[in-house]
Amino acid sequence: MVITHHGGQCFKVTLGDLALVFDPISKKATLPPVRFGADVALVSRDHPDMNGVDEVAYGDKKPFAITGPGEYERRGVVVQGFLSKSGYGLAKGQSDAINTIYSVALEDMTLVHLGALADEDLSAEAREGIGEIDVLFVPVGVDGVLAPAKAHELAVSLEPKIIIPMHWSGMGAPKSLDAFLKESASAHETLDKLTLKKKDVAGREGSILVLNP
Predict the structure, then answer these.
(1) Model pTM?
(2) 2-211 architecture in CATH?
């Protein structure tokens, strides 16, 4: 599979002719909208910065939209969504908003996207349901989501093979990525895209990979 970052919390995952996208950016967002086709679109938070399903209906691809907790299967992709809370982009008088954590199984690997998560601890249901994680996408930007130190603490506790920070490009507090990286005693890698097979995660323990948008 190939993983690319498109700003904010938006990541495209391609596997052959299959394309999946997390948190596609809409035309009404504060970030530049995405414009590519996807077969499956997962939306963690109902906000223009993360809910641009229409933007990934492109060419011959019409996305199957997943917008909340539950169990789903589409074209061999198995998805579990777990309820959590976000503090991002709240309306006046709103104390929190629904956020969905997604666990996606494909090509013998498990990808977990925490969305615009503000909860410092995951629910028992989420922890039990997620299981072993190969790639973890974690928000690090403060601004209604986890602060860098708490993001790192939670990420390490989930014991993923690879950690990819998000919510730092085009959103989040200034220098939030730098603050997150300082929390880790180990080095990180910066890539333009991540090409990954199951054998590539073997032996990794919490490797931090920063994907340029």
Answers:
(1) 0.97
(2) 4-Layer Sandwich (3.60)
